[in-house]
Amino acid sequence: MSLIVLKNIKKEYGKKQVLFNDLSLEIDQGEFVGLIGKSGAGKTTLLNIIGLITDISAGTITIGNYKNLSMKSKNAMLLRRHTIGYLFQNYGLVEDESVLWNLKLALEYKKIGKGEKLRKINKYLNQFGLDDMLNKKIYQLSGGEQQRVAIIKLILQGSKIILADEPTSGLDKDNEAVVMSLLKKLNESGVTIIMVTHNLNLCDYFSRVIDVEKYR
Fold first, then answer.
1. Which of 58, 143, 170, 202 is the most buried (most CB within 10 A)?
2. Structure confidence at residue 141 (pLDDT)
3. Summary mean pLDDT of the chain
4. CA-CA distance, 23 to 177, in Å (whole number)?
5. Distance CA 155, CA 149 (A)
6. What is the mean pLDDT of residues 86-94?
7. Per-residue pLDDT averaged across 21-26, rounded?
8. According to the model, what pLDDT value does residue 24 have?
């Protein structure tokens, strides 16, 4: 069953640069999709269109039961808050704050007590091998550790769709493998993941690979 449906999407910048023209794409619940293509092909723009953080010039976007979505619509805001999670190569964390502070943000809208929030945070830190990092500042962590914290944040948010933009960029091979393994486990638990990458060696992790250049 299609979870995300893009139909006849047009994305243009000004009047002369058309990035996508009549793009149609469907992504099923539970897929792990890799977006590939050369630099400038529109991989990140397509990810942002799906994530409702870049507007389109024409066409329709449907996510779940929400149809005709636009970036500024109320339903788009609800999806960004409760359903869609973003994983970036720069981790998307507040560097001068602690791991605990950053992870508490993910539970801001959850109606659970402070003790339960802390229990959940410690549970995932322990599972991800970060049990002694609770009070450390983000800038004190390695790149691989920061990306693991970012993934925990998405789990705590309850994100059902994860949009990942080069999440292993800058990581060494060991940390790259750790991050991809964690994403694969999340996908196996039912989370739909769409990931931009330039590293074709990661394609074995994906259930489907899309060459974005073919959609231009």
1. 202
2. 95
3. 93
4. 32
5. 10
6. 89
7. 94
8. 95
- Which region holds residue 166: left if phi is over 0, alpha if psi is between -120 and 50, else beta? left
Kindly tell me if the per-residue pLDDT of 193 is higher than 90.
yes
**Which amino acid appears at position 193 of this protein?**
I
Residue 5 Ramachandran class (φ > 0 left, ψ -120 to 50 alpha, else beta): beta
Q: Is the whole-model pTM more than 0.85?
A: yes
The amino acid that residue 67 corresponds to is K
Give the 3-state secondary structure of residue 20: strand
Amino acid at 95: E
Beta bridge partners of 143: none
Q: Are 51 and 163 in contact (CB under 8 A)?
A: yes
Residue in this structure with the two tokens 């990458």, named with its chain if needed: 197
Positive or negative torsion for Cα 139, 140, 144, 149: negative
* pLDDT at residue 111, rounded to an integer: 84
Q: How many residues does the chain have?
A: 216
Average pLDDT estimate for 82-111: 91
Neighbours of 81 (CB within 10 A): 11
**Region 80-92 average pLDDT:** 90
- Pull the structure tokens for residue 199: 């590293």
CA dihedral of 72, 213, 196, 17, whole degrees rounded to 10: -40
The token pair that represents 176 in the structure block: 């790259």
The beta-strand segments (E) located in 166-214 are 192-196, 208-211
Among residues 2, 156, 9, 131, the alpha carbon closest in space to that of 70 is found at 9
Is there a contact between 34 and 202 (Cβ–Cβ < 8 Å)?
yes
In degrees and rounded to multiples of 5, residue 150 shows phi and psi of -60, -40
- Give the pLDDT score at 119: 94
